[in-house]
Design brief:
Largest sheet of chain A: 7 strands, mixed
Number of helices of chain B: 0
Structural class of chain A: mainly beta
Largest interface: A-B, 25 and 22 residues
Distance between the termini of chain B: 36 Å
Strand content of chain B: over 45%
Largest sheet of chain B: 6 strands, mixed
Strand content of chain A: over 45%
Low-confidence stretches of chain A: none
Radius of gyration of chain A: 13 Å
Shape of chain B: globular
Order of helices and strands of chain B: EEEEEEEEEEE
Shape of chain A: globular
Mean pLDDT of chain B: 94
Radius of gyration of chain B: 13 Å
Oligomer: heterodimer
Number of strands of chain A: 11
Structural class of chain B: mainly beta
Order of helices and strands of chain A: EEEEEEEEEEE
Helix content of chain A: under 10%
Helix content of chain B: under 10%
Amino acid sequence: EPEVTQTPSHQVTQMGQEVILRCVPISNHLYFYWYRQILGQKVEFLVSFYNNEISEKSEIFDDQFSVERPDGSNFTLKIRSTKLEDSAMYFCASSETAQYFGPGTRLTVT
Amino acid sequence: KNEVEQSPQNLTAQEGEFITINCSYSVGISALHWLQQHPGGGIVSLFMLSSGKKKHGRLIATINIQEKHSSLHITASHPRDSAVYICAVRSWTSGSRLTFGEGTQLTVNP
């Protein structure tokens, strides 16, 4: 069964560093999403992407964040200068109708 | 007030019991998702509903659009059902993004 994959599974970085989280959505899906979950809190929407552009973003998704689909398969989330409060689990999802989630990347900013 | 409220927050059951988790929402929606999150953090899509009822194995999900309420039922519960169950909605006014509830932590004891 096709699935969404994410790499790395765990990323540790120092405050101020740039990180890139990678996702491979399900191949025939057209809509892509990033969500995050801070430890102990609910999942929050960051951004959605369709037709090679951002279709929606939340107030969390500020200028420090960017998304890209650099080729036909990958979908990336970049955080330019990480802060301690960016520590969270980041989930990629893709959809045709229902959304399917990747296993997540745990980002730890020290 | 959260747009999506789940109850109970925590639920402990004995193996074999029938379990119900409830979700109420305050906005007009085009779809409601039930998701399962295991201790490792990964999220699995269980159901997407826009009306009526769906069944998959021992899981049943129902939705009442007029009452803005959905339930997830687990029949003949098993310790492997122990997880966090999350309700998430796609509202008419917020594109394709999902808004999540806080989750219900289910523990099924043998």
